[in-house]
Amino acid sequence: MSTLAFMSPELAAPEALASPLARALAAAGPALGLQDLSRLGKVELRGDVAAFAPEPGEELLRLTPQRAFVLAEGEVAGTVERARAAGLRAYDVSGAWAGLALSGEPLMRRLTELDLDSFPTAGALAHVTALLFRDGDRFRIFVPQELGHYLVEVVLDMTRGLA
Amino acid sequence: MSFLLTCPHCGPRDVNEFGYAGEVTTRPTAKPTMRELTDYVYFRRNVAGVQREWWTHRHGCGAWFLAERDTRTNEVMKVELPS
Amino acid sequence: MRLEPRPGERIDRSKEVSFFFKGKRVSAFPGDSFGSALYASGQRVFSRSFKYHRRRGLLCCSGHCPNCMMTVDGVPNVRTCAVPVREGAVVVPQNVRGSLDFDLMAVTDKIGGPFTPAGFYYRVGHRPRALWPFVEKFLRNAAGLGKVDKHRGREHRTDTEYRRARVLVIGGGESGRTAALSAAIDGPGVVLVDESRQLEGHDLGGVEIVAPAQALGIWEGGLVAVAHGDLLIRYRAEKIVVAAGALEQPLVFPGNDLVGVMLPGAARRLVEDWAIKPGERAVVLATDDRGLETADVLRDAGVEVALALRVTKDNPREISAQGRRGRLRRVLVDGEAVDCDLLVMSGGRQPAYSLLAQAGARIEYDERRGIFVPRDVPAGIAATGSVTGEIGNGAVPAPSYGSGGDKCFVCHCEDVTVKDVKRALAEGFDSIELAKRYTTVTMGPCQGKLCQLNSVRLIAQENGEGEAAIGMTTARPPWAPIEMGMLAGRDHEPCRRTSAHHRHEEAGATMMWTGSWKRPHSYGDVAGEVRAVREQLGVIDVSTLGKILVEGPDAGAFLDRLYPNRFSDLKPGRIRYSVLTTDGGRIMDDGTIGRLGEELYYVTTTTTGAGRVLAWFEWWNAVWGMDVELLDVSGALAAVNLAGPRAREALGALTDMDVSNDGISYLDAKQGVVAGVPCLVLRIGFVGELGYELHCPSPAGEHLWDTLVAAGARPFGLEPQRILRLEKQHILVGQDTDTESNLLSAGLDWLPKLDKDDFVGKWATELVAERGVRERLVGFVMRNPVLPLEGGQIVSEGRSIGRVTSSRFSEATGRHLGMCWVPPELAEDGAEFQIMVDGTLEPALVHLQPFYDPEGARLKS
Question: Quick one: fold of A20-37+96-163?
Fold first, then answer.
């Protein structure tokens, strides 16, 4: 077994996995347009990040020349291997980050001071660390998974304030 | 406290995104006397003027860097990555 | 009385709005404020003053003074002159015992004067000492204006929003609008904030108008907070233009607070905005042209202007206003009486420089104009319009006119008179900051807008000093009053939850904060949970522990440099206990370090130390630049500690791993699959029983917990864990140690490897070894069945010589025991000492070995 197998959710039986947002989102209705992205694969890269070339299905967020995240639609074992082959250190952090997709600049402006045109980036949202992506009016927010429930509570409350 | 600090990687951000790690100090190179050790551990220059200090972009990219800031006005003259 | 419709009026006469005042229905038009509607209906007395409970009427009509404050729909201190009427609103006066017309508290005005000068509460009612609590209670009930309903709760929702602006203009008067339009030529991102309703619905090409809204302050980094209805907007502005204007100033003369005495702006607004005749017969006394021009506005509204006079300090006069039952009847000017029911007074205008001062501008006294003006406005900020001080004709009023007669008010809000200020100076409170705090001038609802300049002039006159030397008090936010709730925002406190959080709640656990995590204190049966671990099997959620991966060619060397003991010689698959020290040799944190590979270590820390330890690691590596990666996996991994005699049996049933004592020995780190989940198994102990700590990916944490509980493990919380670890004398960093504790005194003398070249804390540890320790951390048992408090003092010959850090009753041993700091001479097994418990000295004995299973046989089985 590779030395960091104990970090990989994808090595567990699928029925053993749960999302940290599940309960909080169950309280919200589908009409709010919130989507749980916690199950997405995420890899943290350390080293010469420029040496990593993302493949289809992979999205790269470069934070510094020495640190980046890869979002992957499928399994991440291959991503990790390719990164290591390119001389980088790579860690399966799929279980470390909870993810939420939502829509609308007005809602984002209740959540963060960051310049919404500067995404993708890492910064503070609702007073916690977040990795942030934007596709038009759709925003993807990743926070440390232990704060996932809190994030949904805040988003639901801000949504109520905008209504 | 609400000044903007420029992260060398991410650009200007609210200072509260960062962790402040104090004045740059010089660690003794050989076994110090009790006085020299106490000075190093407990005393700081605490200038009313430009101070060289450590910061980390805790809620952002996580990088550690140095800044030169006027402690009287919070004007940041320079930020740089450690060499 | 409403005038004929006039151009520019702000009321819509085609509609009707009505509200209730003291139970009676009052008619109004859309565009009226509560105050204007009440005035139109004939109401003249709007409130009773703070201390003397004197009748007060409309004075400024711009939301600055306290005179029109009433309680509207249960909300106290509403400035009725500025708030638009609402259908069905319930308006009641405040600060009265009785009614506005007959207030019992007005006795303070009639006879209380000599007993209630400024600062009286520092001298009155303190002797005999027993009297003060009653006097204070009375005064506190009498003080204040509106009443807050404490039981009402928070019904009113406010939100906070973050916005950006290229140019933020504060103030929608002519110069503000000009500045905004000019900025809009260069592109978008121009915002204009105005506190009045004048610009509502207006279109200012290319400029976003935010009104009515108050700019509360300017902070570092171009941060401007704006209160806009129920929204607090935090702007980051590249450039800020302050066009906040200038504030009308009252004149100071006896009777200047009578109902019917008002500032020019109030008279103007009543006539021009609300088409209301302010009075029948008026006197106008003004220093400035603008003030005098009010006479024309009044005449135009059909008011007889009996006298319009310019008053400046070059032309000393005796002025006195007189009235009956608090309402103006006549004005005496140099002995000549003029009957009137309206007196418009103006001492010129003072630039509203507060925001500029907050931003760092210097405030200077302009001798010619007799006002304080902003200078040296910092980069990124600009000032335009009357706020710059380019106003007035250079005429300055006298500090006060006349003496004797009625009270002569410097501060309407706090009822501070000229006499009060003179007395404060005479008593030695002679600087502006001292005089302010002693008399409370400028400390009321207007916060100096209407009174600070006058108080400075008065002090200058009395002290024989120039106004420039006296200066003004420090300008601070908020510029306008704001509800605490709006500043507090939505009460969201970042809360970290483990994967099994809801399982703990479902099992009836009392959850408590540990740092920003929630953890179970216990599941309701502390003794039962302790017993379960000692006799059968227990499981505790330890996901909150800090976890750091240290990987790289320099990983071992890095840890050797940071920790007192060695890790470069740790065999892969083995774990060592570790304590982190500062360079001062003080204990920072403790935990375990397991070696998972040649270049890979797994560090655990305490829950509350996790962030600090990670920062410590990262900082040292920023300094050293070693070839090592540090990855914080505290949240990535869930962790549980399975402990008790049945632990091996239960674990074995859930995994194919060899869980025999040889398969996973004490202090081994092994990986395998448990309950279908990849796990890192650490055989370590904190509670002194056979135990395994299982670390798995967080998404699988809930499943792992459920499986273990189903297998018969009883959940136990932090409180049982405390008892269990105390029975083994395991220290809790931060409980048994503090920021000054060092390794040698804490009984960890075996830990530091002083033969290492260098480690953080080595020199300090060596110095302590050379000097000798001054105290020792030891275990103790009580002779009698009493439990000392944690923090309880160890007493010898009447002096405190040590303290208890942990104490509990131990069922397993049947004793009351704990840990404490004692002088080194007492740190011998069996030595007796005394602990103060509830006023009695109770005997205790030093017990150096763990209380339970001292050989550790159960732990290593």
Answer: Gyrase A; domain 2 (3.30.1360)
